[in-house]
Specification:
By secondary structure, this protein is α/β, with parallel strands linked by helices. It is built from 24 helices and 10 strands. Helix 3 packs across helix 4.
């Protein structure tokens, strides 16, 4: 961990701990000090808060709609009642744990068909599962209900107060566990999938595995909540777990940002105490669901639930998310001026040194992509030699983006061959191509706003074949090289132009064989664009990867590239040095429109 990370830990800890204590302590103390019914309500709120934590994993962190969490809770309650009926001597905490673990295979029934789905389609699948659970439990009933068997709590949990504190302890354990996971590559992967599945795959993460892990963990937590509810009540009824309760839990979770512990606690408090208040005021209970639905719509529209909005305000208050300063060149002048780099390289008649065995870092042979009767790419062949920067240029619609998507695995239906270091990668998925040595950036910003600059780079670092862990000094050197913001800065507080620099740094970080930079200078001022050109020109010598640069800025192409390939209507119409290509009459006519002086 870097020194900056250590220095900011107390501030980040306060940022997370303060709201949790502010929401959770009154809830637990009120339940402890009030009447037995108050303890009952406090315990129920904590159980629903655990359901909120489960939704915080699958929806808040991973961005998937799950309308079946109370279905998982119902099945967890079923397992707990099975223990009461058939294995009453089993340790209480073991029974609770097994109730959660039993949801892992069940979660596969939901997540496997839903791996390729998002939005409304995923909502339909999960709601159908919730309805299926209701039908199954209605037909089979809960164990022991017909015989009057109930869950018997151990002596140390007999009183309502002790059970309330036990539920609070379990909530804390789960919340701390999730906070630890948030600091790992898995937690960062959840957020990457939430923001962009394409970005997650481009970082080397298997989107399917990330989704499976999210569904499995959320189901496990929901199963624990169901077991605790069964232990609190002794027995349960199917009405507690009907699809409407899952819909309500989802709406509250969206409204209060249940991915944060204080948000989950708010979800539990609102789910229990608001209906109680409405009942005492003689307001129909249907209005509570209406209120939750409106709150969910506001949360979805604004992208900030209650807890997230509070944390965002605290970050601004304590300066944890301050805006970046204007970019300056790194101290010491580590990066040479773009014009000097270009002149030195282009004046060398020998050009770049090819690989000793003649193997290209990236070789494309006869690549064709067809959409119906339209050929987006038509028999395209090109080579990117090790230690070089090759520019891919052409007018809009020439097929540049199609070529990048095809090489990086986002377009599968093509003919031809793609080789990296002489090895064919045609059968590999997008995240597998990352591990084979291909990295890319995107035209649009696809960095992960929930992560810091350091977390984003370390997420990108961990997927390349045989990559070693980057030290704090190496990480800082990379950030300085690309003029990136400080590594502790959250990307949500960084301007778009600076995020593009961070994305370029992430593509280089793992030392892949080849990096495809898709218009990295878009949105950069002229001075920063010139410095970026100098940086790109030095990437092969400084970090190892060859570069395929897709760019419309001809000055940047001339400054950074040793070779250029021109596409027009999906075909290669010219290749050679940038100076030669840009003076070609065919290129001028097809792309540039008039003569260009270089």
């Amino acid at each position: 961990m870097s020194r900056a990370s250590v220095l900011r830990s107390p501030r980040e800890a306060l940022l997370g701990l303060g709201p949790v204590v502010a929401v959770g302590l009154p809830l637990v103390l009120a339940g402890t000090l009030l009447s037995p019914y108050g303890k009952f309500l406090g315990t129920t709120a904590l159980v629903l808060a655990i359901v909120g934590l489960s939704l915080g994993v699958v929806t808040g962190r991973t961005g998937m709609i799950s309308l079946c969490q109370m279905g998982f809770a119902g099945l967890g309650a079923w397992v707990m009642l099975w223990f009461a009926t058939h294995a009453s001597g089993a340790p209480f905490l073991l029974a609770v744990l097994v109730s959660g673990l039993a949801m892992l295979p069940v979660s596969l029934l939901v997540s496997l068909p839903a791996l390729r789905l998002r939005g409304v389609n995923l909502a339909v699948i999960t709601l159908a599962f919730a309805l299926t659970v209701q039908i199954v439990l209605s037909v089979n009933d809960f164990p022991g209900n017909s015989d009057g068997v109930t869950v018997t709590r151990p002596s140390w949990l007999e009183t309502d107060g002790s059970f309330l504190w036990a539920c609070a302890g379990i909530f804390v354990v789960i919340a701390v566990g999730l906070a630890v996971l948030d600091r790992t590559r898995l937690g960062a992967s959840w957020r990457a999938v939430r923001h962009s599945e394409r970005a997650a795959a481009a970082l080397g993460r298997s989107v399917a595995r990330v989704k499976l892990s999210s569904f499995a963990l959320s189901a496990f937590i929901a199963g624990i909540a169901g077991a605790l509810l069964a232990a609190q009540l002794g027995s349960v009824e199917i009405e507690t777990f009907v699809p409407l309760t899952s819909l309500t839990a989802f709406a509250i979770a969206i409204m209060v940002a249940a991915q944060y512990p204080e948000g989950a606690l708010l979800a539990g408090a609102l789910g229990v105490f608001l209906p109680e208040l409405f009942q005492s005021w003689n307001i129909p209970q249907d209005y509570t669901n209406l209120l939750f639905a409106v709150g969910a719509i506001v949360g979805l529209k604004g992208g900030l639930g209650g807890a997230e909005a509070i944390r965002d305000g605290l970050r601004r208050l304590i300066g944890a998310n301050e805006r970046p300063l204007l970019l300056d060149a790194p101290d010491g002048g580590a990066i040479a001026p773009a014009a000097a780099v270009a002149a030195d390289r282009h004046d060398d008649p020998r050009g770049p040194a090819p690989a000793k065995d003649g193997t290209a870092a990236l070789e494309i042979r006869g690549l064709s992509v067809t959409y119906g009767s339209v050929k987006a790419l038509d028999d395209v062949s090109l080579r990117v030699e090790p230690g070089t920067v090759t520019a891919l240029i052409g007018p809009n619609g020439a097929g540049k983006s199609t070529l990048v998507d095809t090489v990086t695995g986002f377009i599968r239906g093509y003919s031809g061959e793609i080789l990296v270091d002489g090895h064919a990668i045609d059968g590999l998925l997008a995240h597998q191509r990352v591990r084979a040595g291909v990295r890319r950036s995107f035209q649009q910003d696809r960095t992960i706003p929930d992560l810091t600059v350091e977390q984003y780079l370390r997420l990108a670092l961990g997927s390349h074949r045989g990559s070693a862990r980057m030290s704090a000094a190496e990480l800082q050197e990379l950030l300085d090289f690309f003029d990136c913001p400080p590594q502790h800065r959250r990307l949500s507080g960084v301007d778009v132009a600076s995020r593009r620099l961070v994305e370029a740094a992430a593509a280089v970080a793992a030392r892949p064989s080849v990096v495809l930079l898709d218009e990295p200078a878009a949105g950069l001022p002229a001075a920063e664009s010139e410095r970026l050109a100098a940086s790109i020109a030095q990437i092969p010598a400084r970090f190892g990867p060859a570069v395929l640069l897709i760019e419309h800025d001809m000055e940047l192409v001339v400054a950074a590239a040793t070779q250029a390939v021109v596409l027009d209507f999906g075909k290669v119409i010219a290749s050679g040095s940038p100076a030669t290509v840009l003076s070609d009459s065919v290129v001028v006519s097809a792309y540039l429109g008039d003569e260009v002086s270089v």
